[in-house]
Amino acid sequence: MATKIRLQRFGKKGKPFYHVVVADSRAPRDGKFIERLGSYNPNTNPATISLDFDKTLEWMNKGAQPTDTARAILSYKGILYKKHLQGGVKKGAFDEATAEARFEEWLNGKENKISNKKETLASTTAETKKAALAAEAKKKEEMAAAISAKNTPPAEEAPTNVESSEETPANEG
Q: Distance (Å, rounded) from C-alpha 23 to C-alpha 161?
């Protein structure tokens, strides 16, 4: 029986949510599966992925083949790298302690990248909100100035030429 690690779709239209499962390759996408390994939510930024690391690594070592998207998820979480390091230990290229040290170093670098991305997204969102608030305040001030100009009565003009024109006809007659 050929097994695949693949995604099983849930969620409503336009809002997908996936379970990462091990299934027989002949089973339908959302059909019968052997074991659930975790979940994947692409609706968040960055995407939320929760996997049982040990179970997934065990299935990879048993020979389960991931689909393209599942392979990307497993690579992102470090399962494929861990399997690669285990292969190096089996071949005698390095020992178990070196493999663990390399994996921990990779994992720390990955966590730093993710935290930096989250901070960048948060700061960008804050700057966008601040700019929108400033634009809204400016527009509000402009509208208030327009309303106050509309509501103030026009200044009365002092007639200067009217008096001199009235005196001219009186001098003639």
A: 99
Q: What is the dihedral of CA 116, 121, 122, 124, to 10 degrees?
A: 120
Structural domain that includes position 108: 94-145
Confidence of residue 4 (pLDDT cuts 50, 70, 90): very high
Decide if pLDDT at 138 tops 80.
Answer: yes
Does 28 share its domain with 70?
A: yes
pLDDT value at residue 159? 59
Is 153 inside a domain boundary? Answer: no
Residue by residue, what is the 3-state secondary structure of 103-150?
Answer: HHHHHHHHHHHHHHHHHHHHHHHHHHHHHHHHHHHHHHHHHHHHHHHH
Quote the number of domains for the chain: 2
Predicted local confidence at residue 145, as pLDDT: 87
Tell me whether residue 72 is in a domain. Answer: yes
Residue 20: count other Cβ atoms within 10 Å of its Cβ: 26
pTM for the model: 0.69
In this structure, what CATH number is given to the domain that contains residue 30? 3.30.1320.10
